[in-house]
From TrEMBL:
This is TIR domain-containing protein. GO terms for molecular function: ADP binding. It comes from the Eukaryota. Keywords: Chloroplast, Plastid. It comes from Ceratopteris richardii (Triangle waterfern). One of its GO terms (biological process) is signal transduction. Residues 4-167, 183-353 form the TIR domain. Coiled coil: none annotated. InterPro entries: Apaf_helical, Disease_R_plants, LRR_dom_sf, NB-ARC, P-loop_NTPase, TIR_dom, Toll_tir_struct_dom_sf.
């Protein structure tokens, strides 16, 4: 049995502890992506002792819940003994966190002599372990007074901090919950505080906040639950969309609770709202009681009001009894605290709340927006009712980027006026599937035709079927909403013709699209444009005081970072806020910098006569802020004091991601910003203004703009910022990163892949639905699929006229007249060939900006130490204002304060300052041996590969993976980025993943090092790599290089040199990649093909084998290296994989291997580790 690796092991005793505290703590950890072992989640049939011991051995953090009866269990005592033994072993850092659960520390000196099946040796071992645990920093949990969520959250935070600091888990910047300052609520939780507030209500409140759902809990955290139904409670009930009522045994002892139920049930019975869907959802939770108890209120039972409310009037008791009776008739959930696992049951409640509160955005932000939408919706209905000649189908077209929200509101507002309602999303994606149009119509009919009229699902494939549907719907007036129509007008027209042949009686069909030309071609009866109502760019307000001397460089860094991400940033000091607090009302997020003289209370006091901004994130500035009450969920403790400490870059990134995630509710693509965008924000804003001005003067044709400059000057970074700022003004957008690298070495296949990505992104259809035979055919397909779309296109690093022919020409001839194409290049001739409207020459940084950028990277401060200022100035001058050089050299020098070291670096810089490769190489030369090899492997084989897979490969080659990546990333030699697409075996799939990136100058430097050192006879120890046809031919024809070959990438359709037939062994080969171009056949028989060579060659050191469309049915014996960790054979003829001969295998990919007959995954050897990813078949 293979034991899974866990982040956390929870040691506990007792059913009550397990169902409540442990259930919730485990759920909170898992929701943060932290794997957690608890015994009740073990698979049935497993050996319990082996599973527990294995989990302890594999865990990094141990939470020991010391409860009153903990020591009654020898299992628990053995566990704690093993935990403390494991903790003290050298190697992997581990942490033990004790939780004193309803016990005092002094009470944990359990009488171990009373433990059954004990002896002196065990008692001593258990006692020593307990004594050691009690010496650690602990948490105290008193179930009679502690709020469960808040205490559990503190524990989770401590676990997360430890795992992040030891790089066990990534810092995902997911703070929970997010505090939202608002006067309206999504959920009202009615409860009797003595029964439920500290446990289930506390946890439910926290879970909802983590989902960005705002609950109102009266008297939360107070001992007194209150007795009156005050104005705050009434307002919260009226404004909430969901009412959750915990009917606990003592609920009826509270008059306030009873009055809340009356008020809630009166809203349900009120005739004031014609649209029932607008009324709040009521969710009764019967906590330790049956619904019948509340329904019948019998004498002698808990809800007998004559007894529970003796002092109340008969009229009051009658009102309460009626409300409770009607409430008990609603379908709810039963919660038995003696048997229910708390997290799992409350998660069911959260799902119900989520489904009922679809729109989580605070109402005080959306209310004006909603009102404008309602006005448009009412116009549609009015025109539908007043049309002179009644049509069977009235067609309304909705144009905009946020049509889904409008469509939802339309259904809510108009749905009650129709007999049948159907709303379908992602229409174009569904239409492209086999029989897509028929399936859409079938789904529509299943929604519109009541089951009582037809027991069979109707698919109108014949004229008789159509007539039958017409008969079933002839007296029905229907509302059909089709969202996201896409750009294929022929499919849209076919779908609408089918609908018109079925629907009757003045039905309303609403079609929504991002593409204006599609709706215009449909000749809709009513056209609605949402473009004027939609926000173009989001505002971010940064509020602060000038009294505490907040560093200007920090404020500038804040402002530039968010500006590069496409936000409109406003710096508002205290004086501005006091003079006009309404200046915050149009911002969705406010970032408030709390400092010594500027507290949260002082900030809030400015909103006496103005609405509080919908979302506020607090940042604590300085090492000793006076505001100790800062809310943790929405605050970031940043001790920004450059005299005492350096800038905390990871924490700053965490805060930036929090803001961006909050603003980016539509999940739009945002190109990531660089760590220190010194001087770039103003540059990008100037270029943005020039582009938009040109477009406004001429909206009749596609316009092309160019950014030109030497490598490493910042062209791509500027293009990303411009993209972030203006992409929302276009119907669709596409950013083609590293075009040269995407195409280089792939021939026609590279051009086709980029064409497919464009079509997939711009037309919102799947890659599998796009067939391209060659680059010329791709131009025709691209032109037809994006016709008339007003799009923003960025093509980064274009250096070949073929790129313009394959991409620019079809785009310029087919895109809508308001489209913009931006090209970055080192070659100005490229921009001339593209007929650019305007060319922007990107220059080097001036002296002041060069200083600022270098200082941030070298010192994490805006200024250098006095003793390094002079040599810093010389280093900056040697970098000649080139951002890439300043960043790489600064990162290389970071953390080293030895002046002699700096001066040596300066000499190296001055020696090779004429060539950027020599400048960049300084950082490479200071890596240790394995780090250099890892860097060169990435240069040749791993750019654009997934981070997790890269870690696995590097670990297989060098024993360490993540540490090497972190070192290279910290030195800015590599980057990571999130890709929306997965390029796999020549196909493009939509799938977000974190991937490895590298600046092309660094990639070229690495490959240059390999070429030069291979030719240098004095360095014949270099283990060579070949990454394309040219380098492969060089090495394969050089017999002396065979024995040192360590990495090889070849194509199945390109024949290899005849000399390679003499290979018998490649002892140092660790990486072998055989690519397959499905548009070309493999090399002819008689020519030397990869399968001919590797059929008999021994590759005993092989770690990573990727062979696309491998022709063999069995893995050649020479490739069956026992060292293989990663084996990928997608779309191959393989019929059997000898997993028993591959003891170190961690990642197996057999996608689309349709001839696979057998895969032995049973009884692996003890050395066989669990797969880190599910293998693909």
């Amino acid at each position: 049995m293979m034991t899974q690796e866990y982040d956390v092991f929870i040691c506990h005793r007792g059913k009550e502890t397990k169902r409540n505290f442990v259930s919730v703590l485990g759920g909170m950890l898992r929701s943060k992506g932290i794997t957690c072992f608890v015994d009740y989640r073990m698979d049935t049939g497993n050996d319990v002792r082996l599973e527990i011991n294995g989990a302890i051995e594999k865990s990094k953090v141990f939470i020991v819940v010391l409860s009153p009866d903990f020591a009654r269990s020898t299992w628990c005592l053995d566990e704690i003994g093993e935990i403390m033994r494991i903790r003290d072993l050298p190697g992997t850092p581990r942490k033990v966190i004790p939780v004193f659960y309803d016990v005092q520390k002094k009470d944990t000196l359990y009488d171990l002599t009373q433990v059954k099946r004990s002896n002196a040796e065990k008692i001593n071992r258990w006692g020593k372990a307990l004594e050691d645990v009690c010496k650690l920093d602990e948490f105290v949990y008193d179930s009679s007074s502690t709020l469960q969520w808040e205490k559990s959250q503190e524990i989770v935070a401590k676990v997360e901090d430890f795992l992040i600091s030891h790089r066990t888990i990534p810092d995902q910047n997911t703070k929970m919950p997010i505090r939202r300052e608002c006067i309206n609520y999504d959920v009202f939780i009615c409860h009797w505080h003595l029964d439920t507030q500290r446990n289930v209500v506390s946890v439910l409140r926290g879970m909802l906040l983590c989902k960005s759902i705002t609950p109102f809990v009266g008297g939360y955290g107070k001992d007194d639950g209150g007795s009156a139904l005050d104005s705050d409670i009434i307002q919260a009930i009226e404004n909430s969309r969901v009412h959750v009522i915990f009917l606990s045994p003592n609920f009826v002892c509270s008059k306030r609770c009873l009055e809340e139920v009356v008020y809630i049930m009166n809203i349900q019975g009120s005739p004031g709202t014609s649209d029932a869907s607008r009324k709040p959802t009521v969710v009764p939770v019967f906590y330790d009681m049956k619904p019948s108890t509340a329904r019948y209120q019998k004498e002698g039972k808990a809800y007998y009001l004559e007894e529970a409310q003796k002092s109340s009037t008969a009229d009051d008791r009658e009102r309460w009894a009626s409300a409770l009776h009607h409430l008990s008739l609603l379908h709810g959930l039963e919660y038995d605290s003696c048997s229910t696992f708390q997290w799992e049951k409350l998660y069911d409640v959260v799902k119900i709340v989520e489904a009922s509160a679809k729109k989580i955005t605070p109402r005080n932000y959306w209310s004006n927006h909603e009102a404008l939408y309602v006005k448009k919706i009412d116009e549609v209905f009015k025109e539908l009712e007043l049309q002179e000649k009644r049509e069977h189908v009235f067609l309304a077209g909705v144009y905009g980027r946020e049509t889904s929200e409008f469509s939802d509101l339309l259904v809510q507002r108009l749905g009650s006026n129709f007999c049948g309602v159907c709303k379908l999303n992602n229409i174009m994606e569904k239409a492209w599937q086999p029989n897509g149009i028929s399936k859409i119509v079938q789904q529509m009919l299943s929604d519109l035709i009541h089951p009582s009229k037809s027991s069979d699902l109707i698919q109108p494939s014949t004229s008789n079927d159509v007539k039958r549907c017409q008969l079933l719907l002839e007296n029905e007036r229907c509302l059909v909403v089709l969202d996201d129509l896409g750009n294929d007008i022929d499919k849209i027209k076919t779908l609408l013709e089918d609908l018109k042949s079925i629907l009757r009686n003045n039905s309303l069909v609403v079609v929504a699209s991002q593409f204006q030309h599609s709706l215009q071609e449909l000749n809709v009866h009513k056209f609605i444009s949402l473009s004027s109502l939609e926000s173009k760019r989001d505002f971010l307000n940064i509020c602060y005081t000038e009294r505490d001397g907040i560093n200007k460089a920090f404020l500038s860094h804040l402002s530039e970072t968010f500006d590069m991400l496409g936000l409109d940033v406003r710096l508002l000091n205290e004086d501005k806020l006091k003079s006009d607090s309404t200046c915050l009302q149009d911002a969705k997020v406010t970032l408030c910098i709390i400092s010594k003289s500027f507290s949260i209370d002082e900030f809030k006091s400015m909103f006496t006569n103005a609405a509080i901004p919908p979302k506020i994130i607090y940042v604590s500035y300085g090492s000793n802020p006076t505001d100790v009450s800062m809310p943790k969920p929405s605050s970031f403790k940043m001790e920004v004091d450059f005299e005492k400490a350096e800038f905390n870059k990871p924490q700053f990134k965490s805060m930036v991601n929090e803001v961006v995630q909050t603003l980016n509710e539509r999940g739009e693509e945002i190109m990531g910003a660089v760590d220190f965008p010194v001087g770039l924000a103003q540059r990008s804003s100037d270029i943005e203004c020039s582009i938009l001005e040109c477009v406004s003067r001429n909206e009749n044709s596609v316009q092309c703009f160019g950014l030109v400059g030497m490598g490493g000057i910042g062209k791509t970074t500027l293009a990303r910022s411009i993209f972030n700022k203006i992409h929302s003004q276009f119907e669709r957008s596409f950013f083609g990163l590293n075009t040269r690298a995407e195409v280089q070495g792939k021939g026609t296949l590279g051009l086709i892949d980029v064409q497919k990505k464009m079509i997939t992104k711009l037309s919102n259809i799947r890659s599998d639905d796009v067939r391209i035979d060659n680059a010329e055919h791709g131009k025709m397909v691209l032109s037809s699929k994006v016709k008339h779309i007003n799009a923003l296109i960025v093509l980064d690093d274009v250096d070949d006229g073929r790129h313009l022919e394959a991409f620019c020409e079809p785009l310029q001839s087919s895109l809508g007249p308001k489209s913009v194409i931006i090209i970055t290049t080192r070659d100005q001739k490229i921009l001339g060939s593209a007929k650019s409207t305007m060319i922007f020459d990107i220059e080097r940084l001036d002296e002041e900006r060069s200083k600022s950028l270098f200082y941030w990277h070298a010192f994490m401060k805006p200024k250098p130490p006095a003793d390094l200022e002079k040599v810093s100035q010389s280093v900056i001058e040697a970098c000649q204002g080139l951002p890439l050089s300043l960043k790489i050299i600064g990162s290389d020098l970071y953390g080293n304060s030895d002046r002699e070291y700096w001066e040596d670096s300066l000499k190296l810089l001055q020696k090779g300052k004429k060539d950027i490769v020599d400048v960049l190489r300084i950082s490479f030369d200071r890596l240790d041996t394995d780090e250099k090899e890892a860097f060169l492997d990435i240069c040749c084989f791993l750019i654009n590969e997934e981070v997790e897979l890269t870690c696995m490969i590097l670990k297989a080659c060098y024993g360490v993976g993540k540490a090497h990546l972190n070192t290279l990333k910290n030195k800015c030699l590599i980057t990571t980025y999130v890709s929306e697409y997965d390029e796999y075996c020549g196909r493009i799939y939509r799938r977000k993943s974190s991937r490895i990136g590298m600046h092309d100058q660094l990639r070229d430097m690495g490959r240059h090092i390999i070429r030069e050192e291979r030719r240098d006879q004095q360095r014949d120890q270099r283990r060579d790599r070949a990454w394309d046809e040219e380098t492969a031919n060089e090495i394969l024809q050089e017999r002396n290089a065979w024995s040192s070959l360590r990495g090889l990438l070849v194509w199945s359709h390109i024949p290899l040199p005849e000399d390679a037939s003499d290979w018998t062994s490649l002892p140092l080969l660790r990486i072998l990649v055989v690519k397959h171009d499905r548009h070309k056949t493999d090399a002819e028989r008689g020519r030397l093909r990869p399968q001919d060579i590797f059929r008999n060659v021994r590759c005993g050191g092989l770690r990573w084998l990727r062979w696309e469309a491998a022709p063999f049915e069995e893995l050649p014996q020479g490739l069956c290296s026992t060292n293989i960790r990663v084996l990928e054979l997608p779309r191959s003829n393989i019929s059997e994989v000898p997993t028993a001969s591959l003891p170190n295998l961690e990642h197996l990919d057999l996608s689309a291997c349709y001839k696979l007959k057998r895969l032995d995954m049973t009884n692996p050897s003890p050395l066989f580790p669990p797969f880190r990813q599910p293998f693909r078949v």
